[in-house]
Amino acid sequence: MQFRSIIRIVGLLLALFSVSMLAPALVALLYRDGAGVPFVTTFFVLLFCGTACWFPNRHHKQELKARDGFLIVVLFWTVIGSAGSIPFLIADNPNVSVTDAFFESFSALTTTGATVIVGLDDLPKAILFYRQILQWFGGMGIIVLAVAILPVLGIGGMQLYRAEIPGPVKDSKMTPRIAETAKALWYIYLSLTIACATAYWFAGMTPFDAISHSFSTIAIGGFSTHDASIGYFDSHAINMITVVFLLISACNYSLHFAAFASGGVHPKYYWKDPEFRAFIGIQSLLFFVCFLILLNHHTYDSIYDAFDQALFQTVSISTTAGFTTTGFSEWPLFLPVLLLFSSFIGGCAGSTGGGMKVIRILLLTLQGAREMKRLVHPRAVYTIKVGGTALSQRVVDAVWGFFSAYALVFVVCMLALIATGMDELSAFSAVAATLNNLGPGLGEVSVHFGDVNDNAKWVLIVSMLFGRLEIFTLLILLTPTFWRS
């Protein structure tokens, strides 16, 4: 394993990440809130540490193998997540513990959106902006990881069955095409962010709130600058803008990439994709169920309010954003539980959404249907086709393996939380909220995670990483085979 090359790359990433501290420092200067010192201090600390890792190893540029790639990906998220906690640690407001600082940083970077901080409306603008920009960088990191990096390592999302899509890179080693793909993805990501911020601004948000919420919307993160989240604005227009951009961001960025590369965006192009059709179908079904039940229980005074709240909460929770406009945990119990389970599906593969991804659920469904056919006709040969393409047994086996690992990690994390003293409902929903990178849960964690004990928070940090790194990326480092030369 090329350890010195890996250290060089991690050092470069750390030095680059230090530059992000200058943005909240400028916000502090602009609003004169006196919160700029922690970010300037962190900038120099990270720049020094990054340079110290890079300089002695700057000439070690050996070709990296897949095994090196796994370690770099895991180190990227753990090192950057740890470094991101420094401003929270040294800031006077909020005054948080080491555990809370790490939790908030990892929650932002993995776009989970679970927070331990209360009183957001009273925090300095620099701190608020920092939380949002962490999510934005995390969201872009997820896109590049899912579309450009993981396929190279052989564990990319199930979007790889579409041979005609030019987005995912299928080469066996790091090539310039990854850099080109990542660059194009940055343009798309930045364009969507600018469009979202502009729409929020026109809808009545202040420029600060518009930019901040566009970061967490496109990243499907869920952090807000207000304790009441999107509900603070009490605006149907803002709710609808959030829904539209969450749906766009929850789509496979390979589709956006290919659409932009072809010179134009056409709805028919997206509709040809079976995962996209399944995603829209799931969203529509969830919305109609929530809408009808809210009407039946007379939860809201008007049909329009029920429509607005059902649409917003359905999209927000099922895409794993976690924005709220109302206490959805106070809805008829069936709905919060349904929406929590919908987060296990999440967004499309290659999106900023969490969960197991739509394409995997689609393939599991097709595999289940095939097994039932085999029971009726044992000697018949059935193939699983998606979009007219027959899938190899290796792809199906990979999906089942992922599902098994996902379930195992979920059970282990849940048992660990119960062992720390958390009640069963809170433990279940907390793991669902972090492993699916959702944010809000039920019970003790329905609003925030501030009251969770420290041991449980560390378990949840690990759960966030497992969910964000597609389980296997982190799990493989725990196997003896990986470390054998």
From TrEMBL:
UniProt-annotated location(s): Cell inner membrane
GO MF annotations, alphabetized: metal ion binding; potassium:chloride symporter activity
UniProt keyword terms in alphabetical order: Cell inner membrane, Cell membrane, Ion transport, Membrane, Metal-binding, Potassium, Potassium transport, Transmembrane, Transmembrane helix, Transport
Primary residence: membrane
Any one Pfam family match given in the protein's UniProt record, by short name: TrkH
GO CC list: plasma membrane
Membrane topology: Multi-pass membrane protein
Keyword Metal-binding recorded: yes
Annotated transmembrane regions: 12-31, 37-57, 69-90, 133-163, 184-203, 237-255, 276-295, 333-353, 398-419, 458-483
List of residues binding K(+): 111-112, 220-221, 320-321, 437-438
Similarity comment text for this entry: Belongs to the TrkH potassium transport family.
Function noted in UniProt: Low-affinity potassium transport system. Interacts with Trk system potassium uptake protein TrkA.
Protein name per Swiss-Prot or TrEMBL: Trk system potassium uptake protein
